[in-house]
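Narrative of activities, Objective 1.

The group set out to show that a structural description can be obtained from nothing but a protein's sequence at a throughput compatible with the screening campaign. Below is one input-output pair from the validation batch, recorded exactly as produced.
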Amino acid sequence: MQLFEATTILSVRLGDKVAIGGDGQVTLGNTVVKSQANKIRKLYNGKVIVGFAGSAADSFALMERFEAKLEQYQGNVLKSAHELAKDWRTDKMLRRLESLLTVVDSKFSLLISGNGDVIEPDDGIIGIGSGGSYAIAAAKALTRHSDLPPKTVVEEALKISADICIYTNNNIRVEEIA
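Output recorded for this entry:
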């Protein structure tokens, strides 16, 4: 059985602005099977944006649970993330889900994993998926040596990642919260 390789998601927070974006490529083995997938979603009336990497079905199941946590905790992203990570780590069925989530709102940029991790990076940059490391490196260089806004940094870093990572393409979608 061939494995799906799919995604580069990048989030950049600079000051009070944050942007998150993703490419559109999904590959099965060494074949592109979709080039315009949407791997970021707005939740909680557009106040929260989630990007995902990993199994699409697992990611959607986790996003639904996260959205339920947001409703339960009245939009408190940090509490919702901690509760999701706790459930994900301890629940027998959820524990098998293979995905990573990047969650941003006006205050927080978080990486949530099935290991129970809720990580807020020191520099406001999060990259996940096949090309995540390339996108992080590009974003760090761009933020250190330019005054570009987060949305532009995300777009340009994802383009650089697409030039390097065979599992990333240039069909880029970016959303921002100001």
